[in-house]
Structure formats: structure tokens, C-alpha cells
Design a protein that fits this description.
Layout: E1 5-8, H1 25-38, H2 45-49, E2 64-68, E3 73-77, E4 82-91, E5 94-104, E6 108-116, H3 124-135, E7 140-149, E8 152-160, E9 166-174, E10 177-185, H4 192-200, E11 204-205, H5 214-222, H6 239-261, H7 264-277, H8 286-299, H9 303-320
Antiparallel strand pairs: 1-2, 2-3, 3-11, 4-5, 5-6, 6-10, 7-8, 8-9, 9-10
Helix pairs in contact: 1-7, 6-7, 7-8, 8-9
Length: 322
């Protein structure tokens, strides 16, 4: 198996220097996104934004990007990953060859599984559903929302296991392979949840391909509900903005559900995803202020504070209704 190419990404090499922790997540995400569009080697945007949730741990200084060109992805690990060839169960009593890349720490596990799906004759939905079933067996899925990396569509999940392990997961069926990326925060981990989120959101698909046709993308957009539950029709020439709006709604729903269910790690994951997409027309408005308070509370691990900020936002919105 070919060894991946490796690139060091020291934090102080970024154009924002050591001040990016003090920057608002939305502003930082926008700045890094502009850099990414102009420079193909800037592939740790989401990975760095995730450090804003839970604070910047010392481990962040040792993260490096690993590239696997034969399998069309890059990902950031907090150390050199172990590589092994094994089997992966894609359906009941049916297994395929898989490659696993993993790093084990005292308080966390970081793992990417790439399973070969060519010629197995299974629908994407069946493969994804079985993967989720296997990962969540005996536990509880707290968040399960549509997800996209580049032009590849899949699912993003937050799972709490029976042993107290909290898993941040993304899974994709793409280019004849199943990609399953898992960041597991062990119960003993002080800041492992932030590192698990950072790991999952560092995944980047290379090669420029997609697992959706143009028609399927338009259909997914048409299924996205707007305010009040009405279906929003796509605007010609404005598909990208509409897609972001749809994903923003999905991430906000996941945030609300996680806070209401008391799932801190799921709320942190949903907030991190939302912060990549949210832009406030009025940064001093009630919604922007409430989201800032929620983010600050989640950054400090204060679930109660985040729930109170959400409750304040919901009360304010109800009071504005006629």
C-alpha cells in the first residue's frame, strides 16, 4: 500500500497568525474559504474552525494533513496513522476488502475506513444505512443529518455509545468506495470532543468528482423546506446560495435537537457546521447575539448556558409573532 504524502500545518504559518482564536468563527471561516478557493493546498479550513469549539488543545500543534491520491481524499491526523488491510461488512453476511487508517490516543480514536464497493450491486442508501446501524449498535444516534464535502454527499452523525464513548462520524458512498470517518472521544478525554470534531471535518475529497447528478442535486434542493415549512424553489443561477441555505437550516435543526436532548458533543458538532455557513445581515440582531452566546457556552463546555441562550432566542421569536 502506498504511503500517503504528508504536509505539516503549523498554526503560526497561517496568514491570521496566533490571533485566529480571538476571531469570530464565521469571519474566520469566510476568510479561510476565500483562501481555499484561491489556493488548492489550503485544505484545513473546517479542521481549523473546529478548534474554536472546545478551545485549542495542545494536540492541535501536531496535526498534519495526509494525502491518499489513489483513494481520492486527504485528512488530518494528530500523528502518523497506522495502516491495515482488513474486511468490512457492507450488508448482513457480506464483507468486502477495506483499508483502515487510524491513530489511537489516550483519550480519543481517529479512524478512516475505505471499503471497496465496486460490483457489489447494493444501493447507496442500503450501504449507508447498514454502516450507521453497525456504528450505532447498542448506542444512540443523537444527530443524523445530510452532509457534503466538496461535491460528495453523505451523512453526518453524532453517536453516544453504551460505554459513554461519543463518536463524531461522516459516511459517504463515492466512486465505488465507502468512506467512513470516525472521531471517538473516550469518557476519560478532557478535550477529546473538540479533537474528534476537528478530525471528521478535516476530510477533503480530491479529484473533483461527485456522487450526485445535476438532476439529483436540483431534486435535493427542491426538497429543502424554507421558513414556515414551505418548499423553497431554486433560483436559476443561484444554486450555490440556495444549497448553503438548505444546509444551514439542517445544521440549525441539528443544533436545536442536540441542545434539547442534552447532547453536548452533538451540539458542538452542529454548531461548528453551522458556523461555516452562517452569515448575519445584522450582527447585532437577536439571532446573531443568541448564536454568539450559544457558541461561547459550547466552547466552554457549558451545556446549560447554551440551552438558556437557545431558550431566550425561542422566546424572543415567539413574542414577535402576531
Amino acid at each position: 500500500m502506498r504511503r500517503p504524502s504528508v504536509r505539516n500545518v503549523p498554526l503560526d504559518s497561517l496568514e491570521d497568525g496566533g490571533d485566529f482564536f480571538a476571531m469570530s468563527a464565521s469571519k474566520f471561516a469566510a476568510r479561510r474559504l476565500r483562501a481555499f478557493r484561491g489556493k488548492s493546498n489550503m485544505r484545513l479550513i473546517v479542521f481549523i474552525v473546529a478548534t474554536l469549539v472546545g478551545g485549542g488543545s495542545a494536540i492541535a500543534q501536531s496535526w498534519r494533513e495526509y494525502s491518499y491520491p489513489d483513494q481520492f481524499f486527504t485528512v488530518a491526523f494528530p500523528g502518523d496513522p497506522q495502516m491495515e488491510t482488513t474486511t468490512y461488512q457492507v450488508a448482513d453476511n457480506r464483507s468486502v476488502e477495506a483499508h483502515v487508517y487510524s491513530v489511537h490516543k489516550d483519550d480519543a480514536v481517529f479512524k478512516v475506513t475505505v471499503a471497496e464497493l465496486a460490483d457489489i450491486g447494493l444501493e447507496e442508501s442500503a450501504v449507508i444505512d447498514h454502516a450507521i446501524k453497525m456504528m450505532s449498535e447498542g448506542g444512540e444516534v443523537k444527530v443524523n443529518i445530510p452532509h457534503r464535502v466538496n461535491r460528495v454527499y453523505g451523512r453526518q452523525l453524532s453517536i453516544v455509545g453504551p460505554d459513554g464513548i461519543r463518536s463524531m462520524v461522516a459516511v459517504f458512498d463515492y466512486n465505488g468506495r465507502l468512506y467512513q470517518i470516525e472521531g471517538k472521544a473516550l469518557p476519560t478525554g478532557n478535550n477529546a470532543t473538540a479533537d474528534a470534531i476537528r478530525f471528521v471535518q478535516s476530510l477533503i475529497f480530491t479529484g473533483g468528482g461527485s456522487n450526485r447528478s445535476a438532476e439529483e442535486i436540483r431534486a435535493a434542493q427542491a426538497a429543502c423546506s424554507g421558513p414556515g415549512g414551505s418548499v423553497v424553489a431554486g433560483v436559476p443561477g443561484d444554486d450555490r446560495r440556495f444549497e448553503i441555505r438548505c444546509r444551514r437550516q439542517q445544521s440549525f435543526v441539528a443544533l436545536v435537537n442536540s441542545l434539547n436532548s442534552g447532547d453536548l458533543s452533538g451540539a458542538q458538532q452542529a454548531y461548528s457546521s453551522l458556523n461555516q455557513l452562517q452569515r448575519f445581515a445584522n450582527p447585532n440582531g437577536q439571532f446573531a447575539q443568541a448564536m454568539s452566546q450559544i457558541g461561547q457556552a459550547l466552547q466552554g463546555g457549558d451545556l446549560t448556558g447554551a440551552q438558556q441562550a437557545l431558550s431566550w432566542l425561542q422566546r424572543g421569536r415567539r413574542n414577535r409573532q402576531p
